[in-house]
């Protein structure tokens, strides 16, 4: 028997969908800025494994010679990115949603199992819960990364007025490196996120838009027999499932 | 998007029979449709807002609303600004020679002996001329600070020169009354802005008076222990670690004072006028 189960609150859905284009534009304008001093690479000594970014990449997306426009967009949208993120964190704190999102002492073990499962190396069923350990770690990390972007951004935006912050983050140049690395982190997060959403399917995707999932429940006990849900306690561990 | 923010009680939504389950699925379809349409409309509204933004009249290289926000940012920054906050200093051994990066205002030949810095008193037509020796007669200040280019690179440089604030205390040209411009106790008739031009007037910057009177804002004549070279702004240039390098005007020709933001070479090309740190 099927049942409608509420999953994502309206506020969280809005924060999620506002953040998506805003972060995308922050990254885009960030690349216009980065182009003007594109010194980062993966490698050692004279060996370069990957240069951020190859000329063909700039050419393909016309990212060159837009430093002024990039800075203006970046310093306008930073407010939206910051406020949306701040409201999201406050909402999760006051609504209690943080209980589902924050990793517990079981999350790391569970995250390993989830990863093995997704790689096809672990066959047993995973715990049925709103967010599994891997998700808890990912969704909490990305908020910490957001805070990191705001702080390193501030450190390179006003390195004298916030000189204490710039010093705490390893100086002007190092803060810029962290700011860039975090951006690469968002791109990697996005790739994994899209792949997982595609795997999880329609029910899961619809929940981030409409808020609910349709779950199969036992007609007698009303216990959910399939599909993740918010119903079990947020701290229920692997063993209790 | 619709919402049911109360956590569901197990069984509450559970249909008792196939008819009820059908009704529940129909309701789910309705909610789903409504939410996707709302999200789609929100997306279109965002797209519309973005198209409106980029269609707005150009204001010195960027759409007018973006310029308004940059100006609001700089008002916020100047409200937070404190002249006691100093840019960090570094060991002299870390000092390097910065790249030249542009020759606007430096393209003509200059005779360093005939060179004079011309300063027009605030609210007057009178212009006073200064030799390099006049500047060097002021207390010499040395600092090893990070020069930050708006392109994103930075480099530690050892600068020496006279504080602009010392100059304006010794030669009180920044006030209407002719009182000295004491940075810690600024007179009421102090000019709010300073403008600098190269002798050929091809490069020009504007500074807020608070940054101009900051103790690390120098009329600089030495770089890394040597007199300035032509490439780096001989005989006299501006250095201030409170601003991006674009404000560090090389080869000072004229200094004037103003009630409104003076024209600024790079601010006319889409950059933030303040460009402050």
Can you give a write-up of this model?
The complex is a heterodimer of chains A (241) and B (277). By secondary structure, chain A is mostly helical. Chain A has one domain: Transmembrane di-heme cytochromes, Chain C (Fumarate Reductase Cytochrome B subunit, Up-down Bundle). Helix content of chain A is 61%, strand content 10%. Chain A has nine helices and five strands; from the N terminus they run E-H-E-E-H-H-H-H-H-H-H-H-E-E. Chain A has a three-stranded antiparallel β-sheet. A two-stranded antiparallel ribbon of chain A has the order 2-3. In chain A, strand 2 and strand 3 (47-51) form a beta hairpin. In chain A, helix 1 packs antiparallel against helix 3, helix 5 crosses helix 6 (133-157) and helix 6 (133-157) runs antiparallel to helix 8 (172-200). The longest helix of chain A is centred in the middle third of the chain and has 29 residues, at 67-95. Chain A is elongated, with a radius of gyration of 21 Å. The two termini of chain A are 21 Å apart. The relative contact order of chain A is 0.15. Chain B is α+β, with helices and mostly antiparallel strands. Chain B has a domain at 89-269: Sulfite Oxidase, Chain A, domain 2 (Alpha-Beta Complex), CATH 3.90.420.10. Helices cover 26% and strands 20% of the residues of chain B. Chain B has a five-stranded mixed β-sheet with strand order 4-3-12-7-8. The radius of gyration of chain B is 28 Å and the shape is elongated. The chains are: A mainly alpha (241), B alpha+beta (277).
